[in-house]
Design a protein that fits this description.
The chain is built from seven helices and eleven strands. It has about 230 residues and is an alpha/beta fold. It folds into two domains: about 180 residues, Glucose Oxidase, domain 1; about 30 residues, no CATH class. The chain is elongated.
């Protein structure tokens, strides 16, 4: 049985940008500040879209050689449907360097129909115009023209991508800045912490943008206890 958060919490998280999510997580001091998110090598492809939030479904792919050890599509689809909606696919590519794209127009349509909001992969993606129009999100390391011999190798196992270890069922958030893991124990408290931090930061921003700015006033504002 996978852990979930309320629909209200999911909707609230979708309205928050990922830097604010990360700041809020830091405010609870439950993990080191240099952990819990994917490194900049995993780039958001469609940066003009709103954040996506979903429960991870993990797998491993390869494309450089004809299919050998292979997981059937039906088994993969069944795993996806066993995870609560919305779903956030995470596929680790074991080719070095990555070659063929598992993700294009067809797979994006299939996975959106299966309740997925997007994919994060350290492999490649393609069919960017069609997928952008579909409203499916890509976070990827590369773009490529071909799918080559791409196939699923393993599914449902913990994988590490962009410095982040992801397990099926994890709660992930992504936008134009990147992908973050949200700890379940604080997920419903994040919107409140986001407001607390925004109020704190607003004091500095308002001062810096005011006609009455002085470095002495800045030093005074800087004495206020930082919430993260």
């Amino acid at each position: 049985m996978y852990q979930t958060v309320s629909r209200q919490t999911l909707e609230a998280l979708k309205k928050i940008d990922s830097p604010s999510i990360c700041n809020a997580i830091e405010g609870f001091n439950i993990r080191p500040k240099n952990q819990g998110f994917m490194l900049p090598e995993i780039q958001c492809v469609f940066r003009d879209t709103t954040p996506v939030v979903g429960y991870a479904v993990t797998g491993v792919i390869a494309a450089n050689q004809p299919e050998g050890r292979t997981v059937g599509r039906e088994q993969w689809w069944d795993l996806i449907l066993s995870v609560p909606e919305p779903r956030f696919i995470v596929l680790h590519d074991i080719d070095n360097p990555p070659l063929g794209a598992y993700w294009g127009e067809v797979q994006s349509n299939i996975h959106k129909a299966l309740g997925a909001v997007g994919v994060a992969t350290d492999g490649t993606v393609r069919d960017l115009d069609e997928v952008h129009a579909l409203g499916f999100q890509f976070f990827a390391k590369h773009v490529s023209v071909s799918h080559a011999y791409v196939h699923l190798v393993e599914i449902g196992i913990p994988i590490t991508m962009g410095g982040l270890t992801v397990r099926t069922g994890d709660l992930l958030h992504g936008d134009k800045h990147g992908v973050t893991n949200i700890p379940f124990e604080i997920a419903d408290k994040i919107p409140g912490m986001v407001k607390t931090i925004a109020d704190y930061e607003r004091k500095t921003i308002d001062l810096c943008q005011s006609s009455g700015f002085t470095v002495e006033k800045l030093k005074e504002v800087a004495k206020i206890t930082r919430p993260y």
